[in-house]
Amino acid sequence: MGKVKKVVLAYSGGLDTSVIIPWLRENYGCEVVAMTADLGQGEDMDALREKALRSGASKVYIEDLRREFVEEFIFRVLRAGAVYEGGYLLGTAFARPLIARRQVQIAEAEGADAVAHGATGKGNDQVRFELTYKALAPELKVIAPWREWEIGSREEELKYVRERGIPVPVDEEKIYSRDRNLWHLSHEAGPLEDPWTTPPDDVYQLTSNPRDAPDEPEYLEIEFEGGIPVGMDGRKLAPVELLEHLNEVASKHGVGRTDMVENRLVGIKCRGVYETPGGTLLYVAHEDLERFVLDRDTYHYKQLVALRYAELVYYGQWFSPLREALDAFVERTQEHVTGSVRLVLYKGSCRPVGRKSPYSIYSKDLATFGKGIGYDHRDAGGFIKLFGLQQELLGRVRRG
Prior knowledge:
Structural class: alpha/beta
Shape: elongated
Distance between the termini: 76 Å
Number of helices: 13
Largest sheet: 5 strands, parallel
Number of domains: 2
Oligomer: single chain
Radius of gyration: 25 Å
């Protein structure tokens, strides 16, 4: 272990980082500054501060990053339409570069010579934290305790903190690894490590069981300007407030649950259970509006970009030139993604049932099965003849 004078730790107050504060002091003999990002996880920040100080931190920063989180990270990924492997809405993945960025800023202000995180050596978060450190402050030493210490399991972590009188919000019976913010709540570990096991009811913390959701459907409208959600049901709302309202209504109807086995960057398949209530509403509405206003070629190509964008975010490459370049493409596509989408929520489902936009290229006169204007059915014959010309020639050759 190299010599370290002061380290800034990304501190959540969970099991891993509760172990890390005393471990850093005992093994590096350094001063530990804890930094907690308030991303809307709903924790008692005063209690978190006291806990970090009791654990041995010399100073604690509590940073309210909710607005930055929504405006700079959530809305960028939403506009890109990025979803990892068809199910994961990236709630942890795009939170980490924001936390790490603020961590680096505090390290510079404190004159620290190192940063630390509580991500394990098996997961994705270690990459997300450390690629941000490399991009923004490559001179800082990085300490990743999970890759150094002899602790081998969460049970051993529990033993370690109990010996030092540090309370943590887990036990052997409910030993899930959770990450919560304004966008989502993720669940891993414990019984979820068996992919055949149905998630127990006590796993879910945000969303109602769809069986117990209201028996009547609920309709709501989400309004967008330039691809950015700006209001619901006719009311303009600030970004954080809007997401909080959407979370509330979606959770009531059991909307936003995902249970999937995904491919981690390090090559391990893992099982994640996610609750993303308001985010699910936004994704469904945004995509529906894009289909309504974008031309076919742009919409189809943007779907390809969304897949690559999701990989970059998942892999921790937020501060990469490619992600920034793709943002420029996305920005151009969103110029006319303005309008409203009406959704219906019922027993865990969310469906678009109406949409309107001043930039729609939908034409009822062209689409109607009745007698419209501006379209001559006879034109289709010539179009098909030219469009299928090579297929016709190929068919003739193959048939001799």
